[in-house]
Write a structure and sequence with these properties.
With 504 residues, this protein is α+β, with helices and mostly antiparallel strands. It is built from 11 helices and 26 strands. A hairpin with a 4-residue loop joins strand 13 and strand 14 (180-181).
Length: 504
């Protein structure tokens, strides 16, 4: 007998000699990125002889002091009750793989604190065994935001660079002659546990030079060209400008206040018309009219309260006066009902329902399609949001969680994101900061027909997306027109509208 035959015989007889049940981890370490998905696997042997046999699969995350239940299946039934809240809605077991002896766990939208040690335990009638594996979640430092300002003295400039990632990255500064410069770098942890790193240097404003900050962990960088990028000097008549601006703002506030009272009316008789003023107190409309006679600060607060109450109604009004939507509406409805359901796909090419167009809170959805299809889709969203819920389109797409819908037509942008929202939606009296307070999980921002190339707008969109808390964002574009944004937004989901299909 030669060796090969002995080995074969050995292997053949092995199972009958010992029914040793084993679990092996597919890998010892998984390296993944924040916001992406991971599938971790364990192989168990022998495989189940009977596909219906009892089977318990458990995944735990643990440290020396803490255990989190990630996934548990008892007798083929998923046990959701025991799941740690941190993992709810983000984990699934690839149950088809069980037949082939795999316990594969998929965790979606990875967070930084998903990192750590996982134990995979499998129990069958044949025995039980477990293994551990390690997950490490990092977030690359991608886009760098730069800022330049004149330092107090006037002869100096304060240059700063900021970016978010994980773990903390050192920042190195170099000038145009590759000389390394000393900097002041600070880091804070964001609610999503990313590290926001800010680094500053002070330089003279007279010498011509270039300064580059480099986030050395991932090599992202930004360069300041001095003196080209020095902010335009302020004029002597600063004080006059300030006084004039205050005057203009005051007039705008008063006009806006009158306008809203007339249009939507803080009508004194409605008892359900309660709203919360700037200090979190509930005030009645009567009280708000009374405050109206108070000082300027009170007027502003009053106006904000009204605004919040009525912004939704104001936007709906704005969209229904939008001439396009009345003309285009019948086309939209036909498109929504007859074409879109057959043409809308996820990035794996599987058809998805129209409801997939609504991003979850905090989610960014990219919708790619042939020219015109994005505009049509934006119109559908607008119609379904403004129409009453019994309307045909609203049945296909439920937008009842959206309190504020902001659409920006990107084909004609000139300013930054907030300027465009204000211009296009006639919200001129709002400041960027005020608008920001409305861009929460109750808001859907649609950037329609987005195409990279307007540096100013692109940068403001990137900054907004980095800082957005819960705002839902849908970006429509033709394929390949926003590559940088696609790279920057790590938590995005992509949908596609296929070219017209030949249906009979
Ligand atoms: C700064 O950069 C520009 C273009 O990148 C280059 O032409 C110029 O020579 C640089 N200046 C210095 C002082 O390094
Ligand atoms: C460094 O920057 C931080 C934040 O910008 C500032 O508070 C601090 O005073 C700076 N420290 C030095 C030594 O410049
Ligand atoms: C993990 O991070 C999330 C936010 O990203 C936070 O809500 C949660 O409480 C954290 N869990 C633990 C155990 O630290």
């Amino acid at each position: 007998m030669d060796w090969a035959v002995i080995v074969v015989l050995n292997v053949m007889f092995q199972p009958s000699l010992s029914v040793l049940f084993t679990v092996e981890a597919e890998r010892t370490v998984y390296d993944s990125k924040f916001g992406e998905d991971v599938v971790m696997g364990c192989r168990f042997q022998p495989q189940l002889s009977n596909p219906q046999a009892d089977l318990k699969v458990t995944w735990h995350w643990f440290t020396s002091t803490l255990v989190r239940d990630v996934y548990r299946m008892d007798n083929r039934k998923e046990n959701l009750a025991s799941r740690d809240p941190d993992y709810r809605g983000r984990v699934m077991l690839l149950t088809d793989e069980l037949r082939d002896g795999w316990s594969k766990l998929k965790i979606s939208r990875l967070r930084i604190n998903d990192s750590g040690t996982y134990q995979c335990l499998v129990e069958t009638e044949e025995g039980a065994d477990y293994k551990t594996t390690t997950l490490s979640v990092v977030a690359p430092y991608k886009s760098v935001t730069k800022h330049i300002e004149k330092a107090a003295g006037g002869d100096e400039l304060l240059l700063s660079c900021q970016s978010e990632g994980y773990p903390e990255s050192p920042v190195m500064w170099q000038d145009g002659h590759l000389k390394t410069l000393n900097s002041n770098t600070t880091a804070v942890t964001t609610p999503r546990q990313l590290v926001k790193v800010t680094s500053q240097i002070r330089v003279g404003s007279s010498a011509k030079n270039n300064y580059t900050c480099i986030f050395t962990k991932d090599g992202s960088s930004a360069t300041f060209k001095i003196p080209d990028e020095i902010p335009v000097p302020q004029k002597k008549n600063d004080a006059l400008i300030v006084v004039l601006s205050i005057g203009v703002i005051m007039v705008a506030i008063i006009v806006a206040m009158l306008f809203y009272r007339r249009q939507k009316g803080c009508r004194g008789h409605s008892t359900r018309n309660l709203f919360v003023d700037g200090r979190g107190k509930s005030v009645s409309v009567d009280a708000c009219s009374a405050k109206n006679k108070g000082n300027d600060e009170e007027i502003t607060i009053f106006n904000e309260g009204c605004m919040e109450e009525h912004l939704g109604a104001f936007l709906k009004d704005h969209y229904s006066n939008f001439p396009l939507s009345t003309e285009v509406r019948p086309h939209c409805e036909a498109f929504a009902a007859e074409e879109l359901p057959y043409r809308l796909q996820n990035n794996e090419g599987q058809p998805v329902s129209l409801q997939a167009l609504l991003p979850e809170a905090g989610e960014v959805v990219f919708l790619e399609g042939p020219p015109g299809s994005g505009k049509m889709t934006a119109n559908i969203l607008v119609s379904s949001w403004t129409e009453d819920p019994t309307h045909a389109v609203s049945k296909l797409l439920n937008l009842s969680t959206v309190r504020f819908l902001f659409t920006v037509d990107c084909s004609r942008v000139k300013g930054d994101l907030f300027q465009e929202i204000k211009m296009q939606l006639s919200l001129m009296q709002k400041t960027g900061d005020e608008l920001r307070t409305f861009l929460t999980s109750e808001a859907l921002l649609v950037l329609d027909g987005y195409r990279e190339g307007n540096h100013f707008f692109d940068e403001s969109v990137r900054n907004f997306l980095m800082e957005r808390e819960g705002c839902r964002v849908l970006i429509t574009s033709c394929p390949g027109q926003c590559p940088i944004l696609n790279d920057t937004v790590v938590t995005g989901r992509t949908l596609q509208i296929q070219n017209k299909v030949g249906r009979s």
